[in-house]
Amino acid sequence: MLNVLRKLFFWNYARNTWQWDSLCVVILIFIFLTPKSWFENGERWAYPAHQNRIATRAFVSTELIGNAEDRGKIEQVMRTFTGHDDVQVLNVRKVVDKDGNTRGYEVDIR
Question: Are 81 and 104 in contact (CB under 8 A)?
Answer without folding.
Answer: no
